[in-house]
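Below is how a single chain appears once it has passed through the pipeline. First comes the sequence as given, then the structure the pipeline wrote out for it. We keep one example in the README because the format questions we get most often are answered faster by looking than by reading.
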Amino acid sequence: MRVAIPHSLPRDEVRRRLRAHSGEIGQHIPGRVADVATSWRSEDQMEISVAALGARVDGDITIEDSQVVFQVRLPPALTFVEPLVAGAIADKGRKLLSDR
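Resulting structure:
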C-alpha cells in the first residue's frame, strides 16, 4: 500500500518532525499495545516496524521535495483493513506536515 502526502516544507524540517513524533505511532494503534521500531536507512528514508496483537506491519517512509511517501506492507490476513490504515496514515501525516 502506498500513501503519498504532499508538503511544502524543507526536507530537514520533515526529518525533524518525523524524528520528533515517530515514538507516538503506537498511541494510534487500538489498545495502545504496539511495539514500534524505527531506523533511518538514509537521510531521507526511514524504516518502520509495528507489532501489535500478534501481527507485524513493516514499511518505509521516503521524504521527497514535495511529498512524503509511506509504503506499507500489510500481511495478507490484514489486507481487509487497508482502507482504514491508509486513511489513518493520510490523516495523521497531513497533521504532522501541516505548517504550524
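The longest helix spans residues 82-97.

See the next section for the split statistics.
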